[in-house]
Design brief:
The chain is mostly helical. 40% of the residues lie in helices and 8% in strands. The radius of gyration is 24 Å and the shape is elongated.
Length: 101
């Protein structure tokens, strides 16, 4: 069994409040980092990509189909697969609901 310190409620509360301050600072730093990431400059896509879709080949712009945002989910589909990797495609089910919104 591990040796774990046992203290009073007051000691626990003081330690918990100190930890809470560190947690709040971490949250603020993560928020700052996320903001900086969003503010990175964009890079124009110069290459003409072609994507295979159920409706035939489409360009990147055509994938947007007039919408302002595009959700792209990539999962593994090996040459011998009859379906997508079960682990990689497990996240696909919740996003299917987005198409109905």
């Amino acid at each position: 069994m591990t040796k774990h310190k046992v203290g009073t409620r007051e000691e626990w509360l003081a330690a918990r409040n100190a930890l809470l301050e560190r947690e709040k600072e971490l949250t603020r730093r993560n928020d700052d980092l996320a903001r900086e990431r969003r503010e990175l400059p964009w890079v124009r896509v110069e290459k003409e990509y072609s994507f295979d879709t159920d409706a035939g080949p489409k360009t990147l712009a055509e994938l947007f189909d007039g919408r302002p945002q595009l959700l792209v989910y990539n999962f593994m589909f090996g040459p011998d697969y009859t379906a997508g990797c079960p682990v990689c495609s497990s996240g696909r089910t919740p996003t299917a609901a987005l198409w109905r919104i």
